[in-house]
Design goal:
The protein is an alpha/beta fold. The chain is about 40% helix and about 15% strand. The protein contains 17 helices and 14 strands. Strand 7, helix 7 and strand 8 form a beta-alpha-beta unit. The relative contact order is 0.09. The structure holds nicotinamide-adenine-dinucleotide and uridine-5'-diphosphate-glucuronic acid. Uridine-5'-diphosphate-glucuronic acid (UGA) binds next to helix 8.
């Protein structure tokens, strides 16, 4: 099939490259000329493992190409997939400017019988609105709008895309369903596809992300309690996760959830609840609890330090989680400025985050290795759990620190082992 993917971000590139790799002819389109310039030079503008290999392979076999802006380049496409951003708007709801703009732009060029797939995460009713916008701006009315939300995680995106737990498709027409089965036929089996209405499909995406966010804030608050009463959150997570009705995933405590989706999607669902008079009070607490958690991290660190003297703090990992360069709503954006306001000097190492983070984080000393970031520090703070951090030479690390104090907000080391090695080691929820 011929597919145009609009938006060359995390979702657009992964979807486009994976569809190309499964044999479709894909054109990835973006209105950011820098991104398209890089892609045409065979360079991937984001960090996501495996994307460069897929790009090279599928450009070489002519399944993949790139275009700047939506033009008549989409007229041959049977499918136009919209994967543009839907950031938080002024009131907390989703800002649909990019989606609506795309709808307007594609309306001018689509041929009859084009399927428009909304992959972006959008509130209930957006597919209806996109349909109306296209109708108003298109010379024909033979097109359909299908909801097909994406569930990939950054850092594991290709694997998630080609091995999905489920594919949710909101489509009303039988012919649309057949086309969607055909689109995914070399990626997954039909039994993985859940067909539903467009409105339910749109809501499934928000409800999924909100449910996961809720689990994280729950385990974070349980971790706080563990610290006060001398229990171990790792055992608690294991103990509750072994119940098949609960399951083990998304029960790892951390510095608070971030990223481009959990916070924004939970906020958007709260706003939908307000709009339709169906209050989402649980999610309101989730957002509040998460914001408080991020603010409290610096207090925990400062508590361990002598506030009278000038302290040097080393930070390992600033992106919102490991295996990504994405800084959107990262806990570090709250934690580092808080520490700086309290007079701390900050050195930072992140395996992939420096380029994006240095645009936002001011007055930090960027280091090229974890050992350099640990040099002469009064405290080393771990904010993400890259494999690289788990495999550090801990003696070497300790020898470069002024004071061997580690605050580990991802629980990557064993507390007994760290004490034996001579560290003052603090982690979360482990007594
Ligand atoms: P992103 O911000 O990384 O990329 C969006 C791209 O769209 C940008 O490159 C931008 O230049 C481009 N764009 C915007 N308007 C355009 C237009 N009119 N024409 C051409 N290009 C245009 O976004 P993302 O992280 O890939 O997320 C996209 C959507 O997918 C969001 O709704 C998000 O909630 C959802 N989602 C994201 C993830 C994730 O892990 N990032 C996972 C699942 C779903
Ligand atoms: C999340 C969802 O997992 C994807 O299914 C979804 O498609 C995506 O959002 C989206 O809609 O954008 P992502 O944001 O890439 O994916 O990252 P996650 O791995 O889910 O982590 C989100 C945040 O929760 C991170 O800050 C992470 O550190 C934190 N987290 C995750 C925890 O603190 N504990 C956990 O057990 C899991």
């Amino acid at each position: 099939m011929k597919i145009s993917v609009i938006g060359c971000g995390y979702v657009g590139l992964v979807s486009g490259f994976c569809f190309a790799d499964s044999g479709h002819k894909v054109t990835c389109i973006d209105n950011n000329d820098q991104k398209i310039g890089l892609l045409k030079d065979n360079k991937v503008p984001i960090y996501e493992p495996g994307l460069t290999e897929l790009l090279l392979k599928n450009v070489e076999n002519s399944n993949l190409s790139f275009e700047l802006n939506i033009t008549e380049n989409i007229k041959d496409s049977e499918i136009v997939l919209i994967a543009v951003g839907t950031p938080t708007g002024e009131n907390g709801d989703a800002n649909l400017t990019f989606v609506h703009q795309c709808a307007k732009e594609i309306a001018e060029f689509i041929s009859p019988n084009t399927q428009i797939i909304i992959k972006s995460t959008v509130p209930v009713g957006t597919c209806d609105a996109v349909e109306d916008i296209i109708k108003e701006n298109c010379v024909h009315s033979e097109f359909s709008v299908i909801s097909n939300p994406e569930f990939l995680r950054e850092g594991n995106a290709i694997n998630d895309f080609i091995n999905p737990d489920r594919i949710v498709i909101g489509a009303d027409e039988q012919t649309d369903k057949k086309i969607m089965i055909n689109l995914y036929k070399d990626i997954t089996t039909e039994d993985k596809i859940l067909f539903t209405s467009r409105r339910s499909s749109e809501l499934i995406k928000y409800a999924s992300n909100s449910m996961l966010a809720m689990r994280i804030i729950f385990i974070n608050e349980i971790a706080d309690l563990c610290e006060k009463i001398g229990a171990d959150v790792t055992d608690i997570a294991k103990g509750i996760g072994l119940d098949k009705r609960i399951g083990p995933h998304f029960l790892e405590p951390g510095p608070g959830f971030g990223g481009s989706c959990f916070p924004k999607d939970a906020r958007a669902l709260i706003e939908s609840g307000k709009k339709y008079d169906a209050p989402q009070t649980l999610l309101e607490s989730v957002i509040l609890g998460n914001e408080n958690r991020k603010k409290n991290i610096s207090k925990k660190i400062l508590d361990k330090l002598d506030k009278q003297s000038e302290n040097q703090i080393g930070i390992l990992g600033v992106t919102f989680k490991a295996e990504t360069d994405d800084m959107r709503e990262s806990p570090s954006l709250i934690i580092i400025p808080d520490l700086q306001e309290n007079g701390m000097n900050i050195s930072v190492y992140d395996p992939e985050g420096e380029k994006e983070a240095s645009k936002i984080l001011k007055d930090v000393n960027w280091k090229k290795t974890a050992y350099e970031a640990a040099e002469n520090v009064d405290c080393l703070v771990i904010l993400t759990d890259w494999e690289e951090f788990k495999n550090l030479d801990l003696d070497k690390l300790k020898n470069s620190m002024k004071r061997p104090l580690i605050y580990d907000f991802r629980n990557i080391f064993d507390p007994d082992m760290m004490t034996e090695l001579g560290f003052e080691y603090f982690s979360i929820g482990r007594g």
